[in-house]
Design goal:
Blueprint (H helix, E strand, L loop, with lengths): L1 E10 L2 E11 L4 E5 L6 H8 L7 E6 L2 E2 L4 H5 L2 E4 L11 H11 L4 H14 L15 H13 L5 E5 L7 H14 L4 E5 L3 H7 L2 E6 L2 E6 L1 H8 L2 E9 L2 H9 L4 E8 L5 E9 L5 H10 L4 E7 L3 H14 L2 H24 L1
Parallel strand pairs: 3-8, 3-9, 6-7, 7-8
Antiparallel strand pairs: 1-2, 1-4, 4-5, 9-10, 11-13, 11-14, 12-13
Helix pairs in contact: 3-4
């Protein structure tokens, strides 16, 4: 459906997208994750043909976005982070205008727009000016314009940004329903929503793809180290001796606890091995009762932070580059109104 090969985009000395390659299969929902300035919006703008790549190729249904732009763009519906809305038009006027721009045949235009209005539950606001409807309805209108022409692929940049919890649930259900007829790529910072909605997740950091897989596959990949935290009645020397003799412990740290005569222990366990029973027996058998024990598994948020942590560690210079990328992406999003 979509093939991205060795994609790169440079702004001066800053690489916003750096040798990015991935494939999007038909009939699935793909989540595109990354911190601010990671290059998500730049990548989406290249995929939709709004800006040109410095190098690399993007093929939509076999059509090169640069060599066959009209054929490729017919396959794509795009909702930027800032929807390209004309606020002084009514919802109906705007969608009819978009249908004309996308060359929906005149005889089919009214029926086509009516069908999309019904599908996105916009009937009760179709005669209102866009500037007078809520943020949630504006997002729906933006999604409606992306659906005009029924493209095979929907690319949604932060579709849930600024929505309240009820609107987020509604948007999530709407995206799931659209996945029955469209392949969907969406970017988001709401990781729990991506986990709930997407079949496949791609994590991008500093313009590079750092992980790709289903939510379950990513969790399995990152759960090579399960963490245990304990509070034990005993001394550092006593617990250290026991832990050194235990198998399956990759590393551990011991420090004094707030409680008198107690220590806190943090253990990293290799693989998904559960050693809680053996650990309890060993410590209790040595006269070191366990007062508390907690096992921590990595969430999608933990995976995201761990995979993108190198970007944070690089410091000030990289933050300046990321800020520059944010500015570029904001300018590109602003230009979407003109490019519609």
């Amino acid at each position: 459906m979509i093939q991205v090969e060795n994609l790169a985009k440079r702004y001066g000395v800053h690489m916003a997208v750096d040798d990015l390659s991935f494939t999007v299969e038909k009939g699935q929902i793909y989540g595109f994750l990354g911190p601010n300035g990671a290059g998500k919006s730049t990548t989406m703008n290249i995929m939709t043909g709004y800006i040109a790549a410095s190098s690399g190729t993007v093929r939509i249904n076999g059509h090169d976005i640069l060599k066959e732009p009209e054929s490729a763009k017919k396959c794509i519906g795009y909702l930027p982070e800032v929807p390209p809305l004309y606020l002084d038009m009514t919802v109906w006027e705007y969608l009819m205008f978009v249908a004309e721009l996308k060359k929906v045949p005149g005889k089919q235009r009214i029926d086509h727009v009516e069908e999309i209005v019904e599908k996105l539950q916009l009937s009760n606001v179709e005669d209102r000016l866009i500037k007078n409807i809520s943020k949630g309805y504006k997002q729906r209108v933006g999604l409606a314009q992306a659906l005009i022409g029924y493209p095979d692929v929907l690319i949604l940049d932060e579709p849930m940004v600024g929505l309240d919890p009820k609107q987020i649930i509604e948007m999530r259900d709407l995206i799931k329903s659209l996945a029955k007829e469209h392949t969907i790529i969406l970017s988001s910072h709401i990781l729990s929503e991506v986990s709930a909605v997407c079949d496949h997740i791609m994590i991008i950091s500093a313009g590079k793809l750092v992980a790709s897989g289903s939510p379950e596959e990513l969790k399995e990949m990152m759960q090579m180290k399960v963490e245990l935290r304990l509070v034990v009645l005993g001394t550092n020397e006593q617990t250290d001796k026991i832990l050194q003799e235990m198998e399956g412990i990759e590393s551990y740290e011991i420090e004094d606890a707030e409680e008198a005569d107690c220590v806190k222990i943090r253990l990293d366990i290799a693989g998904n091995k559960d050693i809680r029973k053996e650990l309890s027996v060993a410590l209790s058998g040595a006269g070191l009762p366990i007062l508390s024990m907690n096992r921590t598994e990595k969430s999608l948020e933990d995976i995201f932070l761990e995979l993108t942590d190198t970007e944070t560690e690089e410091g000030g210079e990289n933050e300046k580059n990321n800020a520059a990328d944010d500015i570029m992406e904001e300018k590109e999003d602003a230009g979407d109104v003109c490019d519609l």
